[in-house]
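TA notes. Do not distribute before section.
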Amino acid sequence: MNSKFIYSFILICLCFIGNGHAQANLLNARVPQDIGKINEKQIVANDETPLSYGYVDDRDILWSKTVWEIIDLNERINFPYYYPTDTTNLGPDRRSLFYVLRENIKKGNIKEVYSDEYFTEKMTYADIQEKLFARKLKNSSIEKLNAGEEITDQDYRTASLGAAEIKQYKIKGTWYVDKRQGELKYRLLGIAPCAPDVSLKLEDTSEGDQEGPLPLFWVWFPDARITLNNSTVFNNRNSSQPITFDHMLNSRRFNSVIYKEENVYEDRSVNEYIYEDALQQLLESERIKSQIRDFEQDLWNN
C-alpha cells in the first residue's frame, strides 16, 4: 500500500475520532431534539480538565516583564471571541466569550472578579449589572414627576449592554524567561471585556462624540480556566473539532497591541507619553514587543 495513502488515511481518521460538543450525536439522531445528547461513555471521554500550569519558582525566573494588551474585535482574526452576538437559532454550545464570562459569574463558577487591573477591589454580579444597564426618565415624564404623579417603569428609557456592544478585550500577562528550560514563556493573568459607557446610549450624542471602550470588569484568568475550558469556539476549518476558549487564549491565538508595560513611571500607558499620534503609538507598541522577543535571542548570542 502506498505510504502517502496510509498517511492520508490516518489524518482522516484523526479528524473524526474526537466528538466535539457542536456535532455531538448528530449522525445518530432520530429527531432534531437528539442532537447534542451524549451517552455516559462519551461524557467520561469528554471530561477534560485544562492543562495545569507547571510550578515556577521565583528563583527560576531570570527575567520578566508585565504588559497590557488590547484585542480589537474589529479584526477578522479576533472574530471567534466576538461571535455569535445573536443566539436565537444556535445551540447552547455556541456562545461568545462575553456571554460565557457573564453567565458563569452569575452562576458563581467564576469568583475572582475585580474592578481594576491590579486585582485589588472585588466586584459582585450586582456591581457588574450596574455597568450593563442604565435608565433615564423620559422628557415627557418630567412634568408628571413635578406634578407629584406616580412614576412607572414606562416613564423611563432603558439601555443595556450585550455581546454585540463589546468592542475589545484588554488582557494583562507576564513574559518571563525560565532559566531551567532556557525559554521565553507567557502567562496570562487577567482579561477584561470593554464597551462604551451604557449611559451614553441614552444621551443624544453621535457615536464619534462617545468615549472609547472602557473595561467593564477584570477576571483573574487562572480562576476562569475551568469554565473557559468547558466553552468552545467555532472552528471554521472543522466544525466537528471545536477549540476551547482556554486553549485559544493560552496559545495566544489572537492579534493584539501593547498599550502599557510596567515601568518606573507608575506603569504609565503609551498614550500618556505619546500624544495624539496613533502611528507613533503603534510603533512604540512594536518596540516593546521587539524588546521582549530580542531578550530571548540575546541569551543565546552572548
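Switch to the second chain here.
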Amino acid sequence: MNHLEELKEFARLHARGQGMRPAHAEDVLETISCDTPGDPRSWARMWTAQGDIAARRGDLLDACRHYALARFPCHTDDDRRAAQQRCVSTFDEWRREGTGIQRVEFDHPDGTVACWAAGLDEKRRRPLLLVMGGIVSVKEQWAPLLPKLRRMGFAAVVTELPGVGENTCAYHPESWRLLPYLLDRLSGTADTDDASLLALSFSGHLALRAAAEDPRIRRVLTVGAPIADFFTDSQWWPQVPRITVDTLHELTGVSDEGELRALLGKFALGPAELSALQIPVRYVLSSRDEIIPPGDAAMLGRHAQGDVRFKTFDDVHGSPAHLAATRRWLLSSLLRLKFTARKGS
C-alpha cells in the first residue's frame, strides 16, 4: 500500500472514531490527490478546507474533527502545523461558550505540556481522571468529554503523549515520568492521591509503567497498549503500518531505522515492572490489531498482580468501529471501580 492510500485507510478509521459520518469522510477522501505540502488538492489542504467550512457555519467541534485529520498523523510540514494550530484555537473558541473547560499549561523540563481540564478546584479537590491519547491523536479529540467527566465527579484533565499536538517533549523510554510530574502539578486542584488514568494506545504503556512506581495511580484503563512484544519482536515489526513507524521516527527524533528499533527496545515492560502492578487494569483488545501483537496483552494478564480484565472487539487497532461500546465499557468500569473503592474505604 502506498503512502497516500495508507493515509486514507487510517483516516477512515479515525474519522469514524471521532463520530464523523463515513459517507462524508469518503467524499473528502475522493477529493485528495496527493500529500504534497502546498498542493491545493493535498491531504492537509483538503481536510483544512472542510474544517473552515464547518467553522463558518458555526459547528466548531466538527471543524476540530477536520483539522485533527488535516494534521494527521503528525504536524511535520507547514500545512499540517497550520491545521494543528486551527484545531487548538477552534476548540478554544468552542470551550469558552459556557462549557466550564479551562486551559492549563505546564513548563516541563523537557518542553511545554498543554491540557484541557474541567472540575479543578482548590477548595473541593475531586479525584483526578487523567486522559491521554496515542501517537496520532490530539487532546481536542477527547476534550469534549470533559463536562461529562466532571459531572461524574472527577477533576478531569486531557493532555497528549510527548511529541503529539502541543506537547513539545520528546518521546523516549523515560517519558512515563511525565505522568507523576502532572500529578505533582495538579495536586493543589485535584485529589491526585486517588488518580485514575484513561490512557489510550501508546499512552497506556506510559500509564502502566508509571503505575508500577507511583502509588497515587489507583487504576488504569486502556485500549491497545503496547507492553513488550511490540517494542522487541523483530518478526512482528515488518507488518507494522508505515504510518506508525514514521510517526515514531518523528516523535523520538530518531531517523535511522536500526537506531529506532534499538531505542524502542528500551521501552519494553518486563515481568518486574508488570508484577509491581497491584491495581485494577481494564484493557480493550482488538482481535485484528495490526499494530499491537497479541502477546502484549497476554503478558500483562500473566504477570500483573492486580485485577486485570479484558474486553475484546472484532476490530483493528483502537476498535474504531466500536467506539461507543468501548467508551461505555471503559466509563462503566471506571465508575464501578470508584464505587467499589469508596465502599471498601
